[in-house]
Amino acid sequence: MAAGKKAKNMGKSAKGKAKEVTGKVVGNESLEAKGRVEQAAADAKQAGQKAKDALKH
User: Which of 2, 13, 31, 53 has the fewest other C-beta atoms within 10 Å?
Assistant: First the structure.
């Protein structure tokens, strides 16, 4: 996987986790849900990149 894309996906996942934790702490369910969605999207993109890389080799 391209290092830049991997780092970008990891950053999005970390940002989503931060939103989820912040939402839990302050009791904001909407923010918590947005964080989970952001993490899932980043994980899906990362999985797609891994599959793409596997097909190249």
Answer: 2
